Amino acid sequence: MKNTFIGFFKADNVESIEKKESVLLFGIPFERVKATKGGSKKAPDALRKQSLEFSGISTDFNIIEEKTSFYDLGNVHPIKQKKYIKEIWEKAIKTNSKILVLGGDHSITYDTIINAPWNNDTALVWIDAHSDLADEYPPGIFKSHGTVFTNLKEELQLKKEQMLFIGGHAYTLTSNEFRKIQNDKVTNYIATQKLFEDKEECLNKIKDFSSNFRTIYLSIDADALDQAFVPTVATKEPFGITPNILVDILNILLPKTKYVDFVEVSYSRKNRTALNFGVGLIFRILEIWSRKS
After folding, report:
1. Which residues partner with 98 through β-bridges?
2. Residue 5 and residue 24: Cα distance in Å, rounded?
3. What is the CB-side half-sphere exposure of residue 237 using CA atoms within 13 A?
4. How far is CA 233 from CA 21, 191, 270, in A?
5. Which has the closest alpha carbon to 107: 216, 29, 32?
6. Are 91 and 24 in contact (CB under 8 A)?
7. What structural domains does the chain harbor?
8. How far apart are CA 10 and CA 17, in angstroms?
9. pLDDT (tens digit per residue) in 47-105
């Protein structure tokens, strides 16, 4: 790790962290299988570098003066360091801390959340253009960025009532993921179009969902945003959500959220808009967490 995310302390290992109610950040620069153009494995370090162009200070938030301790644990390999990811979760539970992960493609959500503590008071929420509920994607591949929530649902035996998918506006019709949503048995679902048609009703549904749980794990795919805001992600989708709608959603979910990942960010040498958005999003997450703690 060449750069530490601005405002974070560099932590060489999680064992050395003893402060309560901290934020533990780490990157997973990893792509399992890419059916489209890759690049997200470079995002963790690129987001850290981009953060150096920010002050970390706004009218409502100053990361330098926050009482919360922010630690950057560097990058972790999801296969070679499975045990270490589990240790990070154990430390987060022991110190009542939150986890923030920089992906990587969406498959890294499986590698992190599979190690999390689960019970009936825990919910899984993902904000994405795609449902990632395929049984296999691409054909013959059963663990990828396109199957991550199918795998988590099956292996953790999650109920529909524990799952909420927000922001869908693109589907893989060659798989049965669209039918899984249509039959209303797999997950609660709020489409992007509904958010635009009646935002207040949708936000109330998210509030009602959140009220049923003590703990939420949240995954944010960059392509949930309209391509105008993230023009270099691997799978660009038009008519996505806006940053303001995303912040409205975060204001509801984050007070109960113990884990957030931000995945599928890619960029070009000439266009770093998605990175700029990603850094701003991370600061907004930290601001809301600090405000609600």
Report:
1. 23
2. 11
3. 22
4. 33, 20, 14
5. 32
6. yes
7. 9-292 (3.40.800.10)
8. 11
9. 999 999 998 888 788 888 888 899 999 999 999 999 999 999 999 999 999 999 999 99
